[in-house]
Amino acid sequence: YVKYYLEGRTKRPSPLWDDIDGNKKAARDLRELFDGKKIFDYPKPLEMMNRIIQIVPNASNDDIFLDFFSGSASLAHSVIEINAMESGSKRKFIAVQLPEILDDKISTQKPAFDFLKSVNHPTTLDYIGYERIIRASKKIIEETKAEIDYGFKHFILNEPNQNTLDKCETFDKAGLLSDATILDDFGSETVLTTWLNNDGYGLNPTIQTIDLSGYEAYYCNKHLYLINPDFNQEAMIALFDKYNSVSSFNPENIVLFGYSFIEWSI
């Protein structure tokens, strides 16, 4: 932030942290991660991000940091680095970036476009940050040998088509039960992730896949999720048997994706 004073002073004031390198070093560091290619303009300096994060006081070191304009994922890189450097640090990050489509005909975007093509990623801006997190983690492992959680998940928000939304809105039991197109539009992983989050488990819970005579169900703490189609009588019997024979299996809620089910009787 540059402030020009009323008395006519036009010289840029010194930064508060004058011992931190600026964007030029940040750009060099990013090129080093990406095999010498300049794939992003004006990345945020890693040292600055580290210091901002370390200002936040938290005795348990488990803060969650949100970057709503993630760009090249400097914040994510910084959180991983701090976790590797500080014993007991379990900080987390959420990096949000619109999937801006890169254009190889624009000179400033072409290096990033070409790079993403070369590694078989979609040519959208969010995948620059995706790849940086992977490469930064590998570099940090090599340099620190720290045994921390380097994992992350990449979520994409998609809007269902209007026909799918109309079906969900009306939910005609007779007409929609066993309508496989509904699940195809969303995908079972999307439905499961959405429900787990709505049920309070967050975006990264431990999920157990349950085999019910060939039918795949999903179990998390107090919830059993039946999402996939073809739930038949054999699967139902296997579910009853599991309740009776496995003491650790005791879901209090069974959640059904109604469109996947057909009517049958025992």
Commentary on this structure:
The protein has 10 helices and 6 strands. With 266 residues, it is of the alpha/beta class. The protein has helices at residues 23-33, 46-55, 74-85, 110-118, 126-144, 162-170, 173-176, 180-186, 188-198, 233-245; strands at residues 64-67, 92-95, 208-212, 215-220, 223-226, 253-256.
List the helices and strands and how they pair.
Elements: H1 23-33, H2 46-55, E1 64-67, H3 74-85, E2 92-95, H4 110-118, H5 126-144, H6 162-170, H7 173-176, H8 180-186, H9 188-198, E3 208-212, E4 215-220, E5 223-226, H10 233-245, E6 253-256
Helix pairs in contact: 2-3, 3-5
Short description:
The protein is 39% helix and 10% strand. By secondary structure, the chain is of the alpha/beta class.
The average pLDDT value, as a whole number, equals 84
Helix content: 25-40%
Low-confidence stretches: none
Number of strands: 6
Largest sheet: 4 strands, mixed
Physical arrangement of strands within the biggest beta sheet: 3-4-5-6
Fraction in beta strands: 5-15%
Gross geometry: globular
Q: Cα distance, first to last residue?
A: 71 Å
Q: Count of DSSP helices?
A: 10
Order of helices and strands: HHEHEHHHHHHEEEHE
Structural class: alpha/beta
The Rg value, from CA coordinates, equals: 25 Å
Quick tags:
266 residues, alpha/beta, four-stranded mixed β-sheet, two-stranded parallel ribbon, 39% helix
